User: Which sequence fits this backbone?
């Protein structure tokens, strides 16, 4: 899962980004509105954390321009706590609204929630065949037996599970599990998928040659 | 009840009613006086013309016959009355039915004397009165001529209102009299005197009207009749006038009520609007469309007051929102970094980093709180407190020293030109002003830039300017730059240290010194901030 954080306060940006990384997300950072808009418009992020008061282009303007083209889930993070502000934020296209100061645990929960909802799932538990994937605790069981996955493997499985029965291209997988600072080779995706197959069973993930992977469930 | 008398509408109505009453009653009074006078004049003229007929007949009678006409001869059938009526006083007074104007008391029964100046062209149409006249031969025939002829136009004597007459000789002996309807007293000397000047004298005796004119041979002719019919008519007209006046007054009152209601309606509407305006809803304004100019002036004053109030509330709201935003951001950073650090075991380097973040955020908050406190204190301070003559140079030297560190970081040169003048001010506060201005000049400057501090006398004030050749300020931002928490885009991007309070504090301090803080700037060329302060002149003190 790849997330963009747009925040002008360097300390807050660093803390939020690190916290997200530790939770297993690939994180891109932007410290002003125009940089944030460029990135948000270029990549298909799984979620965007957006500050309202930003230099160069404020968060609401960014959101308005982004919504012309993309429906990426956006969590608005701001110190503006007036009800009218929340209404403006949500009406301009934000999926959720969190007022500063906030707890990182709540922030992570809300990020999970907007990603899950944008993929059309109501709960954190996603069942695929014998597998039960818990997006909250990042655990997976096969017929009740826990399976241990690495963060990258879990991220690939989560992506495939949220788009199950649909072909997910290798590029999409690559874009969603590595952040902009990663310059890993693209065949790393194949390595991770093959490791994943060994752990959860070969027949679940099908390879469509020249198209990508598909998770049947 | 007190409310009614304090009500503008009721008071308007009261004034209106008073004025209306005076005007209408005055009009009715004048009109009824005019009506009755014209009536009396007509009656008098009728009586006079009858008297003229008698006078004409009298002139034709030869003198000896006139002298020989005895009272006995003259007495026609009818009640005989003594020539002297000394006992009239004792008779009960009849109630007066009318009081025509211009009266003068003459005796117990003679109430009115009306006089008319002698007119030269007062003529009587004799031919009409005496169509066929033949000269009589005997005294008896002569006497028979001395009558008021029946051919006199009928309107004079209505049935029951027959004319009567008395003719006196010079010695007040009666020459001839007709059947009298009431005792007629002999004429007094005063009446004779008045007749020398006037054409006739009119006397009102109860319901009778009498007119006296001079006859030939110093005789005196009195013609009279009962005028109760006319008096009733005049009375009826006066009543009608009074009635019409009352109706007009009533209509006027209703009109006044309508008028006062219309005049006070906009006031009522304005007060209704005003009552709807509260601290939470200051956006309502009075609708001044179609309101009279006096009230619309008042409404405009109220509206502009509301605008200012609204603005003040809006500014206050904005200030609170900005202050909370500025406080929440470092607080959010502080909480996030500590939460992250505590989430799991970290290396000492990581702990150090998080502690560093905590320190930076805590320092930011401390500076912000301090700035807010300074502003709050300055807001509650009124002017002219603790202002004393102080030399500027040491203050400016301190300021330059305090900013030396950040200046050297950007290799910026600060030029302080010697200033010998003193100002009336507070040293600590002024130091804050100039430290702020110099800091800004350094912070928003380019690497290796320059800052100049100069002074200039402007009359009794001294202008101290801090000039830089740095980034400059966009003209659209120049007006807002001293607003609390306002930061230009560059300030937000280039410096994590500003809160947008420095210039508002500086402005507030300069204002408290009865001075002025000005800014001139050109984007890319640099800015000049000038504080104009009242100079302390040794000679005047």
Assistant:
């Amino acid at each position: 899962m790849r997330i963009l954080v747009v925040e002008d306060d360097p300390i807050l940006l660093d803390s939020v980004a690190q916290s997200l990384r530790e939770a297993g997300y690939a994180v891109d950072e932007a410290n002003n509105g125009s940089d944030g808009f460029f990135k948000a418009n270029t990549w298909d992020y799984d979620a965007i954390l957006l500050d309202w008061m930003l230099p160069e282009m404020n968060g609401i303007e960014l959101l308005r321009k982004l919504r012309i083209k993309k429906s990426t889930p956006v969590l608005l993070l701001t110190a503006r706590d007036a009800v009218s502000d929340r209404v403006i934020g949500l009406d301009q296209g934000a999926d959720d609204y969190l007022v500063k100061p906030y707890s990182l645990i709540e922030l992570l929960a809300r990020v999970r929630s907007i990603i899950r909802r944008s993929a059309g799932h109501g709960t954190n538990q996603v069942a695929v065949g014998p597998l039960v994937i818990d997006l909250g605790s990042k655990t997976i069981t096969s017929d009740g037996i826990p399976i241990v996955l690495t963060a990258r493997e879990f991220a690939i499985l989560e992506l495939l599970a949220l788009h199950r029965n649909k072909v997910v291209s290798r590029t999409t997988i690559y874009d969603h599990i590595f952040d902009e600072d990663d310059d890993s080779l693209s065949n790393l995706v194949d390595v991770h998928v093959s490791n994943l197959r060994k752990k959860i069973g070969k027949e679940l993930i099908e390879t469509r040659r020249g198209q990508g992977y598909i998770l049947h469930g | 009840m007190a409310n009614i008398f304090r009500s503008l509408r009721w008071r308007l109505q009261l004034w209106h009613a008073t004025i209306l009453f005076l005007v209408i009653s005055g009009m009715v009074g004048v009109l009824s006086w005019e009506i009755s006078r014209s009536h009396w004049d007509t009656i008098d003229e009728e009586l006079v013309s009858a008297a003229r007929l008698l006078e004409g007949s009298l002139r034709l009678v030869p003198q000896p016959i006139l002298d020989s006409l005895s009272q006995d001869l003259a007495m026609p059938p009818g009640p005989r009355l003594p020539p002297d009526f000394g006992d009239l006083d004792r008779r009960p007074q009849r109630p007066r039915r009318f009081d025509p104007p211009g009266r003068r008391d003459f005796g117990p029964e003679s109430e009115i004397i009306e006089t008319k100046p002698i007119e030269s062209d007062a003529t009587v149409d004799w031919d009409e009165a005496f169509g066929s006249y033949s000269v009589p031969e005997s005294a008896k025939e002569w006497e028979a001529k001395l009558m008021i002829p029946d051919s006199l136009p009928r309107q004079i004597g209505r049935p029951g209102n027959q004319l009567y007459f008395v003719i006196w000789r010079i010695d007040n002996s009666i020459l001839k009299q007709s059947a009298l309807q009431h005792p007629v007293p002999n004429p007094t000397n005063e009446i004779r005197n008045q007749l020398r000047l006037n054409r006739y004298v009119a006397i009102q005796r109860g319901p009778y009207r009498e007119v006296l004119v001079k006859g030939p041979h110093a005789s005196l002719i009195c013609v009279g009749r009962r005028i109760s019919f006319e008096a009733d008519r005049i009375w009826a007209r006066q009543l009608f006038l009074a009635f019409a006046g009352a109706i007009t007054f009533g209509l006027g009152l209703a009109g006044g009520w309508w008028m006062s209601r219309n005049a006070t309606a906009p006031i009522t509407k304005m007060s209704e609007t005003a009552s709807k305006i509260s601290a939470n809803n200051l956006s309502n304004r009075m609708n001044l469309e179609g309101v009279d100019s006096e009230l619309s002036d008042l409404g405009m004053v109220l509206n502009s007051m509301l605008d200012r109030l609204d603005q003040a509330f809006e500014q206050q709201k904005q200030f609170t929102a900005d202050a909370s935003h500025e406080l929440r951001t470092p607080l959010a950073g502080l909480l996030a970094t500590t939460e992250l650090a505590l989430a799991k075991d970290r290396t000492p380097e990581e702990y150090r980093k998080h502690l560093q973040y905590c320190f930076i955020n805590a320092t930011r908050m401390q500076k912000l709180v301090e700035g807010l406190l300074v502003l709050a204190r300055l807001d509650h301070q009124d002017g002219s407190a603790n202002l004393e003559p102080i030399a500027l140079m040491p203050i400016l030297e301190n300021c330059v020293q305090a900013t030396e560190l950040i200046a050297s970081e950007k290799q910026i040169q600060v030029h302080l030109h010697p200033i010998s003048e003193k100002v009336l001010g507070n040293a600590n506060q002024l130091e804050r002003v100039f430290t702020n201005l110099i800091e800004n000049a350094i912070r928003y400057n380019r690497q290796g830039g320059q800052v100049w501090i100069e002074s200039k006398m402007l009359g009794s004030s001294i202008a101290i300017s801090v000039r830089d050749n740095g980034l400059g300020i966009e003209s659209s931002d120049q007006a807002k730059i001293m607003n609390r928490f306002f930061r230009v885009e560059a300030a937000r991007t280039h410096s994590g240290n500003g809160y947008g309070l420095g210039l508002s504090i500086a402005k507030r301090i300069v204002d408290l010194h009865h001075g002025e803080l000005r800014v001139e700037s050109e984007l890319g060329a640099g800015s000049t901030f000038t504080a104009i302060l009242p100079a302390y002149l040794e000679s005047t003190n």
Observations:
- Helices of chain A lie at 10-22, 33-42, 59-67, 83-91, 104-118, 151-162, 170-177, 188-200.
- The two ends of chain A are 20 Å apart (CA to CA).
- Chain A has eight helices and twelve strands.
